User: Fold this.
Amino acid sequence: MNGVRTTSGETVAPFGPTFRKLPKRALRRVGVVDVGSNSIRLVVFDGAARSPAYFYNEKIMAGLGQDMARTGRLNPQGINRALSALRRFAALARSMGIEPLTCVATAAVREAEDGPAFQQQVERETGLKLHVIDGPEEARLSAQGVLLGWPEAHGLVCDIGGNSMELAELQGGKVGRRATSPLGPFRLQQVPEAALKGHIDAILADLLAAMGRDHKRFYLVGGSWRAIARLDMERRNYPMTVLHEYRMTPEDVLATVEWIGQHDLAALRARTGISTSRMDLVPLAGRVLSRLVRVFQPRELNVSSYGIREGLLYEHMSRDLRRRDPLLEAARFTEKQMARLPGFGKKLYHFLLPLFPDMPPERERLVRAACLLHDTAWRAHPDYRAEACFDNVTRANLAALSHPERVFLGVALLHRYKNSRAKSPMAPLFQLLDKSRLREAEILGKAMRFGAMFAIDDPSDAGLLVHVPGKRIELKLTGTGRDLMGEVARSRFRSLAEAMGVEAVIS
Assistant:
């Protein structure tokens, strides 16, 4: 086939098991170096938790694979920059007590004539051992990174690097068919303009034969895809610039690629903060993406900030840990680290549960997460706690959370500290929710606003909430609750009832 290698099955042996056998001490803090064709990045995860906590993150655009399609060798300037970065990363890892530091190299090093020599030079000068992985294994690890963020992901992962593009199928929490291709922008720079469309289409035809067309959702991994998504946000005046779980339709992609071609790249870079080296690759990456959506015809494209590095972290996880909800794991961790009374969020959730009968699972997890996070901004100045809560949750590194769900949590937490959201500086983001969802978030926030101050220990010991839909909410007080039901508590209870459009009854 035209430049395509494929494989099927769930896992590949050469790399994964080696990584899993790291000593238990290393699991507390996991360091990964990703040596790509364009960038080299060190990421240190604070333990193999279900929701990744980034203890340290540094990237350099080395350009190892630049001109390799023409010369067959790694870029000399890129080698110098890469060695300098790797020496620094090795020193940083030693200072953080991370040994061994796991280093993965992808398309440029595996395909260059001097790739083996570069491997030896890296080990000799830095002490780091590069694990050079093949295309299907690169696809598998990228797909695992997507699973880290989307446990229920179902569709096709598309990971673009400087010299290659990998595809991997996700279904039922497992990685299936995989394919690798030479559709990286560095390689395409060597193809004459007149032959470029035919060259891309021929490779995509082989990928389509290998992977099939029946993939309704694409998960886009890689810096070039993220840059295009950021430009799509700019074109649409999208109010939130969090790239993870940003969603585009095929029509969005085609319109944005055309829009990019009509604008000066330097001006776009200034507006979005995209680096010069990344922006230089965007036009070719856009050509690939526009042809990709025309050939495979997905219904939706989701941007993933998680890729190979997170896929390596996923290697550590037991089956039980992989099944846990990343959002709730992150919320529990945040509560433990930042709340005044860790553990109160669970009690608050159970106290408020009668207000939200027959919740679907996708709503229940948001209510639970909000209760866990309800007090994590208490150190902020009282005048700014509402906005701090909103900002924290909408911009936090949280997985398994769509943009509308981020805003839902943000609005709920805003109302935890503030009765009204009028004239809020966060108002532009409210448009991601319809009126009914905004009202639901407000009710949840005002319920937490009441419950969190009604009792400091366990509100269920002070009273029982009874909800008669459309008519009333009743608070049945215990002896303890009668003493706690002061003027402020009564006011907040009435505010909750008003938001629900029902009568407030205290008995």
In short: Residues 263 and 279 are 12 Å apart (CA to CA). Confidence is low (pLDDT under 50) at residues 1-26. The longest strand covers residues 174-181. DSSP finds 25 helices and 15 strands in the chain.
